[in-house]
Write a structure and sequence with these properties.
With 162 residues, the protein is mainly beta. Helix content is 6%, strand content 43%. The protein has a single domain, classed as OB fold (Dihydrolipoamide Acetyltransferase, E2P) (Beta Barrel).
């Protein structure tokens, strides 16, 4: 049987991320994302519903979130669903969350009023303000290829065919 587990969310961060490191030194942070949906009721009235989603980010993506993301920041998250289960006081509990594999900071790149918090510099290494992957608009971060091979976007100018 085939299966596919992919989630793409666009919303606003509900709380400042709290970056922490697990025992092997890997960075991790949990963020809340508020995703709004607008629909028409049977009476023709528009209503807005907000869904709150817990997202866990790992590695470099978690570090970037800890440095540049604040409450209210607009974000795009791509990842997968994961069901956490645990037992407490003899009662079984479960919670569905998103493991974020890629994060894109959204908002203005122009000076003043951008998506970087006050007093923090924007990430370096993106000449001309270009995103580092295929998403349009902001800056995006992921942990790169799992095998440790360099990403195709990290090639040198000699790799450009013109």
């Amino acid at each position: 049987m085939a299966s596919f587990n992919r989630v793409i969310l666009l919303g606003n961060v509900t709380r400042d991320p709290e970056l922490r490191y697990i025992s092997n030194g890997t960075a991790v942070t949990d963020i809340g994302l508020a995703v709004n949906d607008r629909r028409k009721t049977a009476t023709g009235e528009w209503v807005e519903e907000t869904t709150f989603v817990d997202v866990t980010l790992w590695g470099r993506t978690a570090e970037v979130a800890g440095e540049y993301v604040t409450k209210g920041s607009p974000l795009m998250i791509e990842g997968r669903l994961k069901l956490d289960t645990w037992e407490k006081d003899g009662k079984k509990n479960s919670k569905l969350r998103v493991v974020g594999e890629r994060m894109q900071l959204l908002g203005s790149r122009a000076g003043g009023g951008g998506d970087a918090p006050r007093g923090r510099a924007r990430p370096a290494g993106r000449p001309g303000g270009q995103p580092v992957d295929e998403f349009e608009g902001g800056s995006s971060y992921d942990d790169g290829p799992a095998s440790g091979e360099p990403s195709p976007s990290m090639g040198s100018d000699d790799d450009i065919p013109f």
